[in-house]
Amino acid sequence: MTQTRDKLPLSRWQIALRIVGTVLLTASALMVVLGSTILAKELEGPRFLLYWTWCMLLTIAAIIVALADMLLVRRASKRTRELLRQQFMSPDLAEKLRKPRE
């Protein structure tokens, strides 16, 4: 049996961000490999600068997408914790936790 029951479902935005991030990382990794091996001789002057600028921009875009995904995961985690507190914490326990320890 798979462990899908233990995991929270992903939202459409999270799935889209992960697909876009995967595509961006794959493209930038492919550009690094091709630019360092096969295309190394053709990349001279302005072509060199343009090629590696695009590679850097793809990598930065992948980082931004990863940060956005991280924020969505963090927001979902906060919501889950709040729901757990609301559903399972008794009023007495909540009051004890709110009082500062003496």
Order of secondary-structure elements: HHH
Q: What is the straight-line distance between the termini?
A: 49 Å
Instruction: Indicate the mean pLDDT.
Output: 87
Task: List low-confidence stretches.
Answer: none
Percent of residues in helical segments?
over 70%
How is the biggest beta sheet arranged?
none
Count of separate DSSP helical elements: 3
β-strand percent reads: under 5%
Features:
single chain; 102 residues; mainly alpha; elongated
Structure commentary:
This protein is an all-alpha fold and 102 residues long. It has one domain (10-98). 75% of the residues lie in helices and 0% in strands. It is built from three helices and no strands. The protein has helices spanning 12-36, 46-88, 91-98. Helix 1 packs antiparallel against helix 2 (46-88). The N and C termini lie far apart (49 Å). The relative contact order is 0.10. The model has no long low-confidence stretch (mean pLDDT 87).
Task: Summarize this structure briefly.
This protein is mainly α.
SSE layout and pairings?
Blueprint: H1 12-36, H2 46-88, H3 91-98
